[in-house]
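My current task is to audit a protein record that another person submitted. Thanks in advance; the entry in question is below:
***
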Amino acid sequence: MRAMQGGVASRREAFWQLFQGEEREIREEGERDGTAVTVEEITFGVDATEKLVKLTLDILNPMYLKTVDSLVEELPPGVQGGGQKNPLSSLLQSLLLSLLRDFITTCQQGLESSLCVRLAHLAETQLSSGVRDLSSGGSSPATERAHYIVTTISIAVEILVWAVQEDAEVESAFQRLSSLLTVHTPKFNILVSPLRATILEGISALVEKCHSLASLALQRFREFLASSLLYGMYSDAMISGNVDFATAETPKAFQQLRASHTTSVHISRIDAFTTVQLALGNAVCRTLLAGSQQSSDYVAAFLASLGNKLYTSDSGDERALRSAECIVMLLGQLAVTVGGKHGVMETVVATFQQRMFHPASSLDGSIVIELGKMGAKTGDHTTLEVLSRLMSQSLGETAASHTQRGTSSFRHIYQPMVDALLHVAKHLSGVEQRHDLMLRALQLFVQQGIEAKKASDRADAPSSHKATSSSFSLGLLLPVIATLAQRMDRIEDPSQRVGKLFRDFWLYCIIMGFSETEMGVFPPRWYSSVRDIARNSPLLLSMGAEQYLDKELEINHPLKIENIAPGELQE
């Protein structure tokens, strides 16, 4: 027993001496070296950096890692951390590589080529062992340990991308990462999502180092876009919930995961797909911009290839439809990120317009949602014009379809259209742009009220549909106008046009019953929207009330003298 305890003690002592001795040398070297670099509060010189890498290599040696785990196993159960299943070596390996990654990526001066070669070799070793552990068919790792394996591989990818310098090394790393992109791990598909995002970013970073790889990288991205892997992730995400606006920003869960080494952060299927889709869009943008430095045709050719896939997609086939929806999301990301450069925004909007309703399918709703995200992010005038026109056409047909009982080619985009306009209203940044959108929405509200009332007043229109045809088309716009009103200051001195729009708006609200909350005929959100609009609506004042009312009854569309009883007029 004493011999065993002595062996454990000697191994523990040797292990800690390795840490403490090298730490002192590195700190002393950093203080003496005039070429030192600073990372937060720790200063290292170039020579000290090499010692740090050597120390990391020594600790990452399988023999040392095995020693760490054996030391932990020999401790009493209460000291082992509650009998955790994850080996300490996995956590140690992930932390050391993370430290090394953070240091070299913030180093402002170049390191020796021999050191870069050693870093690349370290990254390659970690990639090979990590992928082997994840893909082992017989004994799959537990979920907690798999998390650390995925984290280790992700860090190794970043180290590899940073370390390679020569074109031959960059090409070799490119091939390595391309092969890892579609590694099939069905048990850990959600867990592996941040790794796939890191690989996509790594591929685009390699293209920025070697522009000749741009064409091959874009081909890899197109293959990944049509892969069964992305299709499966998207299908799982759609089962879990609504992914329409999920790709508008990076999920917080993955931001927390990349900033820490905890395994307690919940990752949803929507978060998993969103992270990969956003990383794919960012990687394509970086690759296109890098490739355009060699040839301006890269951007146009890639957009044309995606447009062709979109035009020829079979909306009746589920997998083809899901792939087309991913293409729509990617095109929207390109339009937002690249904007007007190389004519990307104009090309994407034109592509969406040509594809919509040819034929009509659920893909049209995805295009409308993406147009909404584009309009909210960029405030592009053309995009907002397209949305306004689609809204006018769809609401106009809404009123007609209620009275005529005909088929509607816009019915499938009603809800996506309202969701898209609401997204624009919530996120549009420019004050003037929000004001313009408010006026468009008010004008559309009044126009649709006029058309809806004309349709409901037709002699052959069923009386049971008259109120429905008018109120439904108008009520859809109330949340949009309310959202814009909440983000604007109260209008104190409106122009004549603005005053008339608000006056007609309130006349229709009263006639249709949107202000009668006690009736409960319409959805509660419509009533609350009317209250929100009223808070910032301009005061409607007039001089000479009697003459003004008589004239208003003669020329105003919502109120006609022949429709007003004498008693009501007297009131």
Remarks:
- Residues 1-9, 35-40, 259-265, 402-407 have pLDDT under 50 and may be disordered.
